[in-house]
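Comment on this:
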Amino acid sequence: MSDVERALARLGPDDQELLRLVAWEELARDEIALVLGISRAAVRVRLHRARRRLAEQLDGLVTPGARTPAPQRKRDDPTGHVVGGWGRPRPGTEEAR
C-alpha cells in the first residue's frame, strides 16, 4: 500500500469520497456538486479542507529526518487572514472570482 493510500484511509468517509470523485472519477466541481447534491461553493470549500487533511496525513507518514513538515501558521488576525511572513492585506481586498 502506498503512502497516499494509507493517508487516504485515515480520512473520514466524506473526505475520501470527495477526493476519489476528483482524482479517480475525474469529475469537475460542478459535476461533484450535482452528484453530492450540494453547491459548487460547498464543493470548493470541502475539497480544500479534504486536500489539507490529506496533506497533514501524508506529513504524518513521513519518516523522521526524511523531510521536515512546513510549520503551521495561525489565523490570529481578526479578519481571518494568515499572519506570517507576508504583509497585512489591504482593507477591502477580496478573493478574485
User: Anything to note?
Assistant: The chain has a mean pLDDT of 79.
